Amino acid sequence: IQPWPDRGTAEAIADVVAWLASDESRFVTGTEVLADGGVMAAAPRLVDHDLAHLRTMSGMAWGNTGRSAEVRRLTDG
After folding, report:
1. Half-sphere CA count of 55, side-chain side, radius 13 A
2. Domain map of the chain by residue range?
């Protein structure tokens, strides 16, 4: 489940690269930037599961906050 509401695109990754190459990122040093729509935040819960059906889903799991997960099917276009 990708928390971001849209599919990841090459343009989204290019935007991150352009930002890192710009003066606006001059204070960012010695770190990695994840451009994954929030997938890493959900990764521990996804290990050892069949993930094929999740490729068409987007949503947000709120952890142990008591708030229910919000999940929807992605549409092309």
Report:
1. 4
2. 10-73
| Distance of alpha carbon 4 from alpha carbon 60, whole angstroms | 8
CA dihedral angle for residue 48, residue 53, residue 57, residue 59, rounded to 10 degrees: -30
pTM of the full structure: 0.51
Q: Which residues of 21-58 are buried (b: 16+ CB within 10 A; e: fewer)?
A: eeeeeeeeeeeeeeebbbeebbeeeeeeeeeeebeeeb
Beta strands in 1-77 (DSSP E): 57-60, 70-73
Report how far residue 10's alpha carbon sits from residue 55's, in angstroms, rounded to the nearest whole number: 16
Reported as a single tens digit per residue, the pLDDT across 20-73 is 999 999 999 888 888 877 777 666 555 555 666 667 777 777 777 788 878 888
